Amino acid sequence: AKSSGGSQYRFFSKELNASIQRMVDMEASLRRAFDENEFYVAYQPQIDIESGATIGAEALVRWNSKEYGIVSPADFIPLAEQTGLILKLGQWVLEEACREAKRWERAGRTSLTISVNVSAKQFKQPDFVDIVKGILHSTGLNPAKLCIEITESVVIDKLMFTLKLLDELAAMGIGISIDDFGTGYSSLSLLRQLPISMIKIDKSFVAEMVEERSVRAVVAAMITMTHHLGITVVAEGIESEQQMAWLREMGCDKGQGYYIDKPLSAERMQARLKETPAI
Ligand code: C2E
Ligand code: CA
Ligand code: CA
Ligand code: CA
Fold first, then answer.
1. What percent of the chain has pLDDT over 90?
2. Contacts of 240 (CB under 8 A, 6+ apart)
C-alpha cells in the first residue's frame, strides 16, 4: 500500500494545500473586511402565526467581499470562530442589531423584538454579560426587546457555567432562545433547568414535514411539550402556505421563512414595517 500510495498522497496533499491556501487567503480577507466595512446585517421578519403580525426579526450577518462576492455566514462564521475574529464580529452584529431595533422603537414600533445569534466562543467570554450590558446601555434598547439565540451544543458544554450566565441574562429581561432545536442533544431536563424563553424548531423539520407524516407528528409533539414548559415556539424555514397551515393548526406561536419574507436590508425592513400594521 505504501509504494502505490505515494502518488496518491502527493495528489491529496496538493488538494489539501490548495484548500488550506484558500482558507489562509479568506482569513486575510476576513480580517480586512472589518476595516473595509464589508459586513452588514440583514433582518428576517418574524411573525405571530395566528395574527400574521410582524413581531420582530432575526439579525443575520452578511459579508459582501471584494474578492469573493457575497459569502454565506455558513462559510465564514466557522472561519471567524477559528481565528477568534468572531468576538469582534459578533459584538459588532449585536450592537448594530440593537441600534436598528431602537430605530424601529423610535418609529413607533415599540413591541418589536430583535433576535441575535451568539456563537459558542462569544458566549464563553468571561465578560459576555458586561458586553451585552454595555451595548444595551449605549443603544438605549430595552433588554426585553433583545433575544439571544444559542445552540444546544453551547448549552451542554459547561452546563453550570451556562446556567449561571443564562440566569444573569434572563434576570436582565433578555430573552434566551435555543436555535436549531431538535438537531442536537436537547432534553426536557435541560429545558426545565435553564431560563429558556423560546425554542426555534430547526428548518430541517419544517422542510421534512411536507413529505413525512411522522415528522409532522414529531413537530406537533415538540410544540406541545415545549408549551407545557411555558416556552414559546418559533418555526424557521417556512417556505409554503401548507407548512404555515400545519404549524398554525399545531399551535406554533411564531414563524419565519421565505414564505413570509427573506432576510432584508435594514432599509427594506423599515419599509416593510411601514406597510404592516402596528401591534
Ligand atoms: P440560523 O441561525 O439557523 O439562521 C437561519 C438560516 O436560514 C439563515 O441562513 C436564513 O437566511 C435561512 N433561511 C431563512 N428562511 C429560510 C427558508 O425559508 N428556507 C431555508 N432553506 N432557509 C431559510 P444564513 O443567513 O445563511 O445564516 C446561516 C447561519 O449562519 C445561521 O443559521 C447562523 O447559525 C449563522 N449566523 C448568521 N448570522 C450570524 C451572526 O451574526 N452570528 C453568528 N454567530 N452566527 C450567525
Ligand atoms: Ca438563528
Ligand atoms: Ca436556526
Ligand atoms: Ca443553523
1. 77
2. 210, 259
| 277 C-beta neighbours (distance < 10 Å), count | 9
- Length, in residues, of the chain: 279
Q: How far apart are alpha carbons 111 and 132 in whole angstroms?
A: 20
Grid-cell match 451542554, residue found: 156
Extract the C-alpha cell encoding 276.
404592516
pLDDT category at 8 given cuts 50, 70, 90 is: low
Which ligand is located closest to the Cα atom of residue 85? Answer: 1
Cβ neighbour number for residue 244 with a 10 Å cutoff: 21
Flag whether pLDDT at 9 surpasses 80.
Answer: no
The amino acid at residue 160 is M
Map grid coordinates 411573525 to a residue: 47
| pLDDT at residue 1 in the model | 43
Pocket of ligand 1 contains residue 258 by CB under 6 Å: yes
Whole-angstrom distance, CA of residue 167 vs CA of residue 69: 40
Tell me: the pLDDT tens digits for 29-40? 999 998 899 999
Q: Give the model confidence (pLDDT) of 45-61 as tens digits.
A: 999 999 999 999 999 99
- One-letter amino acid at 43 equals Y
Residues sharing a CB contact under 8 Å with residue 269, sequence separation 6 or more, in sequence order: 43, 45, 57, 100
Residue 132 CB burial class (10 angstroms; 0-12, 13-18, ≥19): buried
- CB of 237 within 6 A of ligand 1: the answer is yes
Q: Which ligand is nearest to the CA of 92?
A: 1
276: nearest Cα among 101, 52, 41: 52
Is the distance from the beta carbon of residue 60 to the nearest atom of ligand 1 less than 6 Å? yes
| Interface predicted TM-score of the whole assembly (ipTM), two decimals | 0.97
- State if residue 77 touches ligand 1 by the CB under 6 angstroms criterion: yes
Question: d(Cα 133, Cα 135) in Å, to the nearest integer?
Answer: 5
